[in-house]
């Protein structure tokens, strides 16, 4: 499991390569709401934190064998960038439906992008079949080093806004939530940590609330698509540290993306679900300041046009 020590070590490991992302006040989302802008990070996503920490943590033998991963986009781009930075060969399986911008980002960094399957789960199954022969599997979320890297966001929030009362985090497989919640709760247990699922990918919501809502693949929140890997270490961590989890639909995700554009930021659907929850009044009021993690800004032009036309 990942503890505060691992998150602090991750922060020291990635600090020479990444600068803290900005935190920005908002309007129209309620009193005392701030945005933690991971879309301003390298590769325009929080994923670079975990990918870089994971690759910098490999021993020499694993570095020589290279790594393999699966991603619908942001983990792929982050891992490709981190692989180039650390001199490690990377092979990344991506669903055939992955936005072209994200495929191009992977190839631009010199990693091998392999298009496989009609959805994330099909690509993941093939990647897991290939893993260990001889490449090291780097899960986008079910990996202690990836989780610890994501947890550095929590440490930065506490540095930037020490009196924060609530942090709202997008959730898919739970790597981001596991890291952020671990860092926040172990440093300041009274902070309320709230997850947000897209209705299209409700796996964590189902686990938290004992529901059985179905998954939908056609969604603006494509970065959150996919089920949670069986036996994932993220599930018990999220259920332990997450205070609640909300659900937002496609209409609110589109509205949140438009809101972020008016604020001067291009944000993908999965990265905007925290804003969507506030616009939908899906979160109760809190006594104090709220930070919403904006997890990524990689969005295809075609998707952006679709959002602006609705």
Short structural summary:
This protein has helices at residues 4-14, 47-56, 60-65, 74-86, 100-108, 120-130, 144-160, 175-187, 203-209, 234-241, 250-262, 273-279, 301-309; strands at residues 23-25, 33-37, 67-70, 90-94, 112-115, 136-137, 164-170, 192-198, 244-248, 289-294. With 310 residues, the chain is α/β, with parallel strands linked by helices. The longest helix has 17 residues, at 144-160.
Key structural traits:
43% helix, 310 residues, 13 helices, alpha/beta, single chain, 10 strands
The coarse overall form would be: globular
Uncertain runs: none
Give me the side-by-side strand order of the main sheet. Answer: 1-2-10-7-8-9
Radius of gyration: 18 Å
Helix count from the secondary structure assignment? 13
Cα distance spanning the termini: 43 Å
Strand content: 15-25%
Helix content: 40-55%
Number of E strands: 10
Largest sheet: 6 strands, mixed
Q: Mean pLDDT, nearest integer?
A: 94
Structural class, from helix and strand content? alpha/beta
**In sequence order, what are the helices and strands, one letter per element?**
HEEHHEHEHEHEHEHEHHEHHEH
Characterise the protein shown here.
The chain is of the alpha/beta class and 310 residues long. It contains 13 helices and ten strands. A six-stranded mixed beta sheet has the order 1-2-10-7-8-9, sandwiched between helices. A four-stranded parallel beta sheet has the order 5-4-3-6, sandwiched between helices. Helix 4 packs parallel to helix 5 (100-108).
